[in-house]
Amino acid sequence: MWRTRLKHSSLFSTAVTERILVSPGDLLGDGVFETLHVRPSGPWLLEEHLARLASSAALLDMPEPPLDEVRAELSRAALALPDISDLSGERDAINAMARVVYTRSGLVHVSVGEIPPAILRERRDGIRVLTAGLGVSIRETPPWSITAAKSLSYASNFAARRWATRHSADDVVWLSTEGYALEAPTASLIWLSDGVIHTVPPAEARILPGITAAHLLSVVSSVGLDAKQQMITAAELADAEAIWLASSVRGLAEVTSLDGTRRPRSPWTPRLLNLLGFSAADAQQPR
Description:
By secondary structure, this protein is of the alpha+beta class. Helix content is 28%, strand content 27%.
């Protein structure tokens, strides 16, 4: 049990405790996490997320996470939801998410709850995106880089999104110093050109492997599209037939504006959402 004594002044309050109130993992971002979409059948793509959690931990030289315990706790937490299919008040809506946090100290935290309305709006209405230099080279990544891990060090990621908001946009696609489009702060980049669904090759770009993007590329042949991993410049991306940001909870959010240039809605958006198991009604229909 924490025992805290507070000393107050007009300028500040100081907490005197027997233990530090913030763990090193929380204080330093020294840990890894995963966020999953929860469906009536359970957490979506669970094994893929657990595998990435373990891979991220290995990149940070952390002990292997207790995956069996995490799996069991996720199942218990999902079952504790009142009714996953009705959280949004709409019949058959799927609107729940889970998050697993694992820190170097060995702490595992699992939480399950409703998806924030802002994420659902992005899935339905699309997003305005700006490209911005990340200041890193895909050819000169330092050997200690953890860019391929889903670490708790997300302050820069959310700072990028706040920067986009200040510039009348919703999100950012980061560019390497060579001019290649890499990823968004919390999502993978996907685009459609000439009947092919593309995403950025994570190993070549040295970015986090996207689980939703990889799954989409593995199933698009069922709707008559081919799939390919490919590097792309910002100029080439602007010429794509359609662009999306993909993540496990957001699903697909179509890019409706890129660097201030409006883009027409793609008829593929509802089809691809449906293919991923999201309701096609989540996407605004093209006009």
